[in-house]
Amino acid sequence: MEGVTKEVQELLSTLPKERGWRTTQCLYNYGGLWNQAKQIQAIISLQSHFKACDSDVIWLKALMFAMANPIMHVETQKFFDIPHPRLFGTHTHYPLLPESIKSSKCKIIYLCRNSLDNFNLTELTIEEAFDMYCKGVFYIWAFWDHILGYWKAGLESPDKFLFLRYEDMKAGALPYVKRLAEFMGCPFSDVEDRDGIIEEITKLVDTSQSSYHFRKGEVGGWGSHITLAMADRLTNIMETKLSGTGLSFKSDS
C-alpha cells in the first residue's frame, strides 16, 4: 500500500473496514472515527513526532497531511523549524491529537459549519453518500463526534480554545476578526481600528475565492443538493447528538 508503512498496514488489517466515498479507497475505523489509510498513517506520525510549543496556534485544517508523505523528510524538518510563533492547521480529531498539543499552552481555533452545508458530493450517488454520512461513515470524521470533541474540550479550557461558526462569520466577520486577533495575542490598536485596517482584513474572508472548502459559501446552500426529507433526517440526527451540549447551528433553506 503506497505511502503506508508495514506497521500501519498490519494495524489496518485489524480495524473495522467500510467502503470509502471514492471507489478506489476504503475507510478504516481508527480511534472511533473513519479515515483513509494515508490519513491514519499521518495521524500516527503526528502523534509520534509532533511536539507543540506554548506559542503555537493550531487551526483545524490540514496539519496531519503535511506529514503524510514519508519521502518528504527534508521538508518535514523545515516544517518543525518554522519560526515562533508557529501557525499550523489540522483535521485531526481531538482525542487523536499529540498529547503535547493538549497539555501545552498552545491555542486551538476551531471553525465549523452546519452539517447540512458541510455534506458534499463524491463518486457515490448522493443517496449512498448521504446515508453513509448520516451513519457517521465519513472520511476524516463522523461530523458530530469531531465537533463535540473540540466543543467539550473548549468548555473545559476556554482560554485555550476559540470555537467559531462559519454562519456567524458569514453574517458579519468584523467582530470575529477582532476576537480572533485578541485570542491570538495580537489585538488591533485603536489607530488600526480608526484607519480601517480591520475592515480591510475582513475582505480577505471571501469564500467565493475558496470553492474547494466552501463551494459557493452560502448559508443554506444545501437546498441545491439534498431533498427536504434528507435535510429533516440529518437535522434530527444533529439535534439528538448535540442535545444538552449548548451547541447549536443556524440554517436557512
TrEMBL record:
- Name the Enzyme Commission number(s) assigned to this protein: 2.8.2.-
Q: Name one GO molecular function term.
A: sulfotransferase activity
* Domain annotation Sulfotransferase: ranges: 46-246
- Pfam families named in the record: Sulfotransfer_1
Q: Coiled coil located at which positions? A: none
InterPro entries given for it? Answer: P-loop_NTPase, Sulfotransferase_dom
Q: Could you list this entry's UniProt keywords, alphabetically sorted.
A: Transferase
Top-rank taxon of the source lineage equals: Eukaryota
Q: Which family does it belong to?
A: Belongs to the sulfotransferase 1 family.
Write the protein's name. Answer: Sulfotransferase
